[in-house]
Structures are given as structure tokens and as C-alpha cells.
Amino acid sequence: MDYKDKVLALYKESGIKFTEDELASIEYADFGLDNIEEEGLNLIVYVNNDRYCAKEMVLLPGQTCPEHRHPRRGINKEIEGKQETFRVRQGLVYLYVEGAGDFSSISAKVPDSSRDYYTISHEIILCAGEQYTINPDIKHWFQAGPDGAIVSEFSSPSDDASDIFTNPNIKR
């Protein structure tokens, strides 16, 4: 099964109903790193307007969304950065945010090719049915557990172009 088929299978097996248009609109984000199975993210965006955003994300087993933050934006930084809540629908997610932590004891495996660009290790383990809210401008990264994960994101407006990734090689 190729990469896109694996992603599609996770969406379809999730028990969540998707339209054919939604499944056809999946964004396969490789962040310009050309190692999508290790560092990547797959998204269906339900809505993203000037008031709120809702997405359904799929991560394959062990797949990682690289470390980043959502800073203030706008010409005069008048717009607050994105605040987002992740709710795990299926699987397990290892979420890392700013705070006390030690890389020697985390559950996730930091991608070898980008090890220098993962700087935070305060671990929050989210199981299906659990959620966590990440405040604006907080560095974070996350990785799916051994069976992959389906994660709903509810947030203030999303503006990918304003996200700041720790890895300067990332293109979004």
C-alpha cells in the first residue's frame, strides 16, 4: 500500500464519516523535508475563516509533526497567534510543549535527520477521548503512537504562512 492509501485507510477506518470531496481534499504536508512518513502531517480542513478553524488530522504510526509555534501576526502583530485544542479520536499521541522535561525519558522517537531541531520535551500523552489546549506562541510538536492517530483540531484562525518552525529547512 502506498503512502496516500495508508492515510486514506486510516481516515476511512476511523468511524468518522467523510464526504468524497473531503477525502479528495486531503493535504499531505511533507514540510519540504522529503521524508513524509517520518515527519509529515495529513489534514482535512473543515473550515478556516477569520473566527475559527476545524481540522481532522491523521498521523501514520510514528509520524511526527515537527516542532513549531503560532506567533502573533499581522502588520503590527495585532492578531493573536493560534490557540488550538487537540482531541484524539483514535490511537495515541505523544505531545510535547514548553516546560520541564528530559529527552532521555520521552515516549516518542525524535527523527534522527532533524534531531537538532527538537528542543522541547515536556510530555503529554493523549489517548483516544482526551484533549489538550495549546496556547498561542508555545512551541510544540507531536508524534503518533504505534497504531497511528486521528486527531481533531479546534482552533482560532489558522495561518500556516505565519507558523515558525524550529527547523529552518521547513517550507510550509
In N-to-C order, the SSE pattern is HHEEEEEEEEE
Number of helices: 2
- The CATH architecture classification is Sandwich
Q: Cα distance, first to last residue?
A: 26 Å
Anisotropy-based shape: globular
Q: Give start-end ranges of low-pLDDT stretches.
A: none
Spell out the CATH superfamily: Jelly Rolls
CATH topology: Jelly Rolls
Helix % is under 10%
Radius of gyration: 15 Å
Report the biggest beta sheet as strand number plus sense, adding barrel if it closes. 9 strands, antiparallel
Count of folded domains: 1
Question: Quick one: how many beta strands?
Answer: 9
Per CATH, the class reads Mainly Beta
Strand content range: 35-45%
Catalytic activity: D-lyxose = D-xylulose
Cofactor: Mn(2+)
Protein name: D-lyxose ketol-isomerase
GO molecular function: D-lyxose ketol-isomerase activity; metal ion binding
Model description:
By secondary structure, this protein is mainly beta. It has one domain: Jelly Rolls. It has helices at 3-13, 20-24, and strands spanning 27-29, 41-48, 53-59, 64-69, 84-97, 122-127, 131-134, 140-155, 164-165. Strands 1, 2, 3, 4, 5, 6, 7, 8 and 9 form a nine-stranded antiparallel sheet that branches. β2 and β3 (53-59) form a beta hairpin. GO terms for molecular function: D-lyxose ketol-isomerase activity; metal ion binding. Keywords: Carbohydrate metabolism, Isomerase, Manganese, Metal-binding. It catalyses: D-lyxose = D-xylulose. Its EC number is 5.3.1.15.
